[in-house]
Amino acid sequence: MIHTLVFDIGNVLADFNWRGYLDGWKLSEEEDGIVERALFMSPMWKEVDRGRLSDEELLELVCRDAPGKEGLIRRVFAGAGAAVRENPYAPELLKSLKESGYRIYILSNYGRTFYEERKPYFRFLEYTDGQVISYQEKHIKPEPEIYETLLSRYGINPEETVFFDDLPANLKAAGEFGIHTVQVTGYESIKKGLEQFGIRI
Questions:
Q1: What is the mean pLDDT of residues 5-23?
Q2: With contact defined as beta carbons under 8 Å apart, do 161 and 5 qualify?
Q3: 129 secondary structure, DSSP code
Q4: Which option is the CATH number for 4-15+85-196: 3.30.365.10, 2.40.50.90, 3.40.50.1000, 3.90.800.10?
Q5: Where are the beta strands (DSSP E) in 14-111?
């Protein structure tokens, strides 16, 4: 029987639309490509999520590969937290599940600055019993250590738990701990995933 529900934030409880955010800058095709590669497609983002690179260290590294564009990259980065917006269904969804008696947790890859900036706008956090955020743990999904932290810190039984995430690699890693999983592609996939385990909202 399922007693615990674990949710990712980006593209699950919130919409991570970096492409729409970048389009709003109305850059030339060349500049758009430079910023895209330097920031949103950079492997360095993982180190920020892991909490091992500060924002300034990230910017120094990516700007080295984009000579003459440092000012632009820094301006785009400064407002990039706004690329993540709470999904309208998220607060009511978690409220309903909480009132039905389920324990609810967050397991998400997030860097310090953007998480702290967006946290006040995440109303769904009010209905959670705890959060494991990557920058605080110095590990990111799908590394096994972050799942071990979640399970041990909150005394979670994996066989009684369902994890909702948008990325197959993260779900596969959770499954290796015996956690049930649902891949999220939108609200309907969450609803169907819950129904799969006998949970109606």
A1: 96
A2: yes
A3: S
A4: 3.40.50.1000
A5: 14-16, 84-86, 103-108
